[in-house]
Amino acid sequence: MEGLFTLAFVAQVLRITVPYALAALGGTLSERAGVIALALEGMLLGGAFTTTIAAYATGSVALGALAGVAGGTLVAALYGLIALRFAADQVVASIATNMLLFGLTPFLSELAFGSSASSPPIPGLGPEVLLEPLFWVALALVIAVAWMVRRTAFGLRLRAVGDHPDAAESVGIPVMRVRWLAVLMSGGLAGLGGAWLALSAAGFTDEMSGGRGYIALAAIIMGKWRPSAAVFACLFFGFAEALQLNLQATAGGGVPRELVQMLPYVLTIVALAGFIGRSRPPGALGRPR
Amino acid sequence: MTTSVSPNNTLRRELYATALALLVALAAGSVLILTWGESPARVYGTLLAETWGSAYGIGQVLFKATPLIFTGLAVALAYRAGLLNVGAEGQMAAGAFVTAVAGAALPTDTPGVLAVPLALSAGMGAGALVGALPGWLRARFGAHEVITTIMLNFVIAALVMWAGRAGFFVIETTHTAPIVAGAELGSLGLGTSAANLSFVLALVFVVWAAWFFGRTRTGFEWRVVGASMPAAEASGIRVRRVIILAMALSGAMAGAVGANTVLGDKHYFEEGLARGAGFMGIAVALLGQGQPLGVLLAALLFGTLAHGGFEVNALVPRELVEVLQAVMILALLATSAAVRRAAETAPATPATNATTTTNTKQGA
Amino acid sequence: MSATGQPALEMHGIDRRCGVTQANDKVDLVVQQGTVHAIVGENGAGKSTLMKIAYGLMRADAGTIQISGEAIPRTRHRPAEALARGVGMVHQHFMLVGSLTVAENLILGHEPTRSWFGAVRRSKGRGVLDLARAEAEIEALARRYGLEVDPRARIDELSVGEQQRVEILRILWHGARLLILDEPTAVLTPGEVKRLFALLRTLVAEGKTVVIVTHKLDEVHAIADRVTVLRKGKVVAELPGQAPPEDIARAMVGRPVLLEVTKAPVVLGDVVLAVDGLHIAGRGESREAVAGVVSPWAAVVAGVSFEVRAGEIFGFAGVEGNGQTELVEALAGLREVGAGAVRFRGRDLRGVSVAQRHRMGLGLVPEDRQTRGLALAMSVADNLHFGRLAEVSRPFRLDRQAIDRRARAAITDFDVSPADPAAIVANLSGGNQQKLVLARELGRPGLRCLVCAQPTRGVDIGAIELIYTKLLAARAAGVAIVLVSAELSELRALADRVAVLYRGRIVAVVPGAALADPIELERIGWLMAGGQSTGARA
Fold this sequence. Notes:
The complex is a heterotrimer.
Chain A: H1 7-32, H2 40-58, H3 61-85, H4 90-113, H5 133-151, H6 153-163, H7 165-170, H8 175-201, H9 212-222, H10 227-250, H11 257-272
Helix pairs in contact in A: 1-5, 1-8, 1-9, 1-10, 2-3, 2-4, 2-8, 2-9, 3-4, 3-8, 5-6, 6-8, 9-10, 9-11, 10-11
Chain B: H1 7-36, H2 40-52, H3 55-80, H4 88-105, H5 112-141, H6 145-168, H7 198-215, H8 217-227, H9 229-234, H10 239-255, H11 257-266, H12 277-287, H13 292-311, H14 319-345
Helix pairs in contact in B: 1-14, 2-3, 2-13, 3-7, 3-10, 3-11, 3-12, 3-13, 4-5, 4-6, 4-10, 4-11, 4-12, 5-6, 5-10, 7-8, 7-13, 12-13, 13-14
Chain C: E1 9-18, E2 21-31, E3 36-40, H1 47-55, E4 62-67, E5 70-72, H2 79-84, E6 87-90, H3 102-107, E7 112-114, E8 120-122, E9 128-129, H4 131-145, H5 160-173, E10 178-182, H6 190-205, E11 209-214, H7 217-223, E12 226-231, E13 234-240, H8 245-253, E14 271-281, E15 299-309, E16 313-317, H9 324-332, E17 341-344, E18 347-348, H10 354-360, E19 362-365, H11 369-373, H12 380-383, H13 400-414, H14 430-442, E20 449-453, H15 461-476, E21 480-485, H16 488-494, E22 497-502, E23 505-511, H17 518-528, H18 531-534
Parallel strand pairs in C: 3-11, 3-12, 6-10, 10-11, 16-21, 16-22, 19-20, 20-21
Antiparallel strand pairs in C: 1-2, 1-4, 4-5, 7-8, 7-9, 12-13, 14-15, 14-17, 17-18, 22-23
Helix pairs in contact in C: 13-14, 14-15
């Protein structure tokens, strides 16, 4: 248990939290603008895949990360096409987008690497999280996005569009454009989270997003749709996950690993039932125009 | 899945949208097949031949389609009352698990006529409980069932694994002990396929659902709840009760998947059985316009793709089928919306007496 | 920049189709600068549509628009464009974002921002917000026009009257010279209406132009310089504001209008509904409109007692937000009550379900027909049987033929158009939808008491006549009716007795005939605005 409060443990927690936090950050933007962010899972996966391709081809971590952003944004663009342009049901569109990515990535992986299960190794992140420039980029993004929502004109418009799009339109705000921007940004941020995943594992494995997109949504709900609170929730989930991994390694039990796995999901259900205060989403969430 | 124009036009429009979506999916699939270096004609041809071209193929299609009929009906049932049940995955797992455990716990010489209903009811009951929880959370706290059911999927998956490792799984495996002989559901005898009597059960449920939706007072009341909860409440319908009941019944329907996978095929529960059927049920319900017959047809289509994908694995990776299914759903969402939008803005025959009422008959 | 002598607004040949209806049909409109111009017409005449087109929220199919002499190409006309040219619109349903503050709402779309170096500019959605500056400017503007609002208050914490003031303040802040108000007085007390009109006169004196969309003729008389009358999408008359109301009404409807239904003398039976000391918990919505004082009261209905006998119509007058909604919901069984008792036919209704109340003979015409009264996506026949399924189930199988048969009978009896049981209710006009609700409730077997809220809101005059006739027929047949209405003229026409509701209490009960007396009417208006509890008011 002493290993718990060492720097190594903190580093591990941070390492685990980054993809959650980035996805949750992006998802918050999308949801605050009124667009359901259930497709974060697909955006994470897509970003992880494109990162792998780019890092493998160029040998560069930085280019890989950029490719991850691009990949996530591409997935977001597809989702946006169905959910915004065609104004279809956002829940079903999200699930279908995730399904698509879950099927497409192994197919493309087989095409590119000859294996649908895993890719050849790529240059990855170093062992020291705090020395990793990508980590500081992520941290800077967290601060920047949270500040943007509260203090900039765009952030105000974002909030208005998600709460009462008719009111926003009546003063001349281009509602669709704001929503598109929010969705694309969510894709870019989640894609960066996917990049972190792939680089952290030094390769792509099938279904490596592992439900993180849904946990990110859980964090958004727990954080009552405020960016900084959502990131804190992610930190908590990351802490729990690191804890469980360590307990696994040391005593091999005590707390069944499944209980820890369940924790974020149970907490979300509890939050939605109102046990940690009213959890009210943006007024126009999920309603197409 | 409901629109505000006359029913006949709606049906025609949705069929058109579905056909269009199928074409888009086939086209996208062809692109991918060509990228892979194969011939689309050969791939699609093989797919058709290996599915509907032999008794074994048909049997496998039915086998793969059966869970989808159950989950598709589950989603359609909940949607009738205006609820989106994304938790069929977890309800299915809980149901199948309990079916297997109950089936194994019965006395060894229990006759089939008792064993099957007992094991199945246990499983459907478990599914009902797992479905009722989000229903209750929605009715009591207003917690949206989309999120709670998704979260519960993960919770149930973890719980099942935990229970399995705590003793229900055979040591060193991820499956339960075999069920007693009486609980086994016989095969349909289509070649060596796994198609079993649970398909017949699924058909029974389809017929029941159609009767329930169209002919009963309760089915009507559910439709009112789905159309407008405030109006339903004002008309004396106990909305909270309907929400919980609809989710419970939906969960029970999903829990019936155990009849196919456990009772009819493996004769035990294994982790990962019929994985994805829960989410696919949403697609099936969407494609089937929320109607029981449509669900049946859509399930058969997806079953064809599922088995077909397996059979063409020598030619293209199996994941192609998943991609096809996803593209089909996305395309259907887009075409449905586009067709609906076109109908709403189309200039109709102008009323000669410009009254303030609008006429639903919009001409051919 | 308006050239003097140019009309503030000119619209020519405006056509606009909405679905199957021609909402605007070759409409011409000229609004002179520095005047108050009223656009009147029945519900569904195309007034709101026309103004939305003027403001750029909707695009006309054909026609031209000129603001202060400058033409605006149809394709470029958007709210942003209109705002830039000095046109502001206050909508019927407020366009305010509830979770944001007054200041945030006002600056939305034209946010004053600070660049990184501290310079201030009004940007197009870029840069850091400068809220402090905005708040100061808003306070100054509010003081200038006598509109007290706290710029830091959240919209969803303000009363309806206050929210409207915020809306007006917003367009003034944007520098509007032409103000369009769409049905502004629907949610105001008579006192608040007076204040609004005083403000409008001030604005006009400054050289601004006001267009007011309304269906209330007395308001036209009070404030308008000119009146344009629309009927079924066409302009049918243009009159001076002081023209006789009968002329305007005749133009609105196309025939002489005399909204006097013959009411037989009341024949009272037994007490059917007895309410005693009813309390309903919950925060009251409406606030003290004058001094910006916030004084929520503990119970939204605070001790209401009344009796209704068979054969009489008992009315409730009062501005929205004084407990009527909650009272109606409690009577219908849709809301829990605190202390007090509601007795229907001698039986205490505490704990009695909605379905049971139906069986006992209690019906409800809800104030919001589109959410509470009907399921818009379902058919006419289906909607006609909400809460009446027991009559067509045997016992749990639906008798489709009976449903169809009875639907046709109701459609004929209430003149519902289109006369198609399979028609989807969303496609019916407001009047026909309301007739549907009434057909259903009045046809309830064994009906003893009907609770009826705002029965003619958003309903055209033809349907109003039928609805009044049917209600009076039910009254003659011995049904007790509780009628809640924001229209005093309606209460005068129908009610035998009228109670005035203010802040959850009955502050007076007068005979229905009293509403025909102008002095009594004035007193009632004063009571509706809280006259007694706050002392004499002008």
